[in-house]
Each structure stands twice: as C-alpha cells, then as structure tokens.
Design brief:
Helix content is 53%, strand content 0%. The protein contains 4 helices and no strands. The chain has helices spanning 2-7, 10-23, 28-45, 73-86. The longest helix is centred in the middle third of the chain and has 18 residues, at 28-45. The chain is elongated.
Length: 98
C-alpha cells in the first residue's frame, strides 16, 4: 500500500474509483462475480423446474462480522487519521503531527 500511495496521486485514485463505478469491480470482487455468473449458468442448465439460480447465490459474503452503525464526521476523521498514521503518512492539518 505505501508504494501505491507513493506512486499515485489522490486524483488518480479517484479516477480509478470512478472507472470501477462505471466498468464494474476490479480485482478479486470481479472474479467472484464472474465465477458466480458461471456457477449460476451451470446450475440453471442442470436444474429441474423450480427457482432459477442467481449469480449472488454463489458469491461469498465477505466481512460479515460486526454490523456497524453509520459514522458521523468526527468518527470518520478519527478513522482516517488512524489509518494515515498506520501507513506512515503525515498529518498536514494545523496542529497535526509531521
């Protein structure tokens, strides 16, 4: 992750996020979706009468641990500040740590 952040600007990361929003997920999420589509096709080709299988029936649900309540802006700021610190970033806000 530090290498990615050293090579990409926030604008470039935002462009990739926008691209993913239009073109669909990249990486492992896309693989899960494609495999779900394939499994649903095979299941539907070999099924009898009844409910048609959907790709979502074959896609694992990751990170289903603790359900979280929506955060307010203060909680979001604290979370981002902690992530920034863990990744070795600098806080350039007035009074932040350099």
């Amino acid at each position: 992750m530090p290498e990615l952040l050293a090579r990409c600007t926030s604008a470039e990361l935002a462009e990739w996020m926008a691209y993913e929003h239009v073109a669909g997920p990249l990486g492992p999420e896309r693989g899960d979706l494609l495999h779900g589509m394939l499994c649903a096709t095979v299941a539907n080709a070999n099924r009898g009468k009844g409910k048609k299988a959907e790709p979502k029936d074959f896609i694992p649900k990751w990170d289903q641990g603790a359900k979280r309540e929506p955060m307010d802006w203060r909680q979001m700021l604290a979370s981002v500040t902690a992530m920034n610190r863990r990744m070795g970033g600098t806080d350039r806000r007035e009074g932040g740590q350099e």
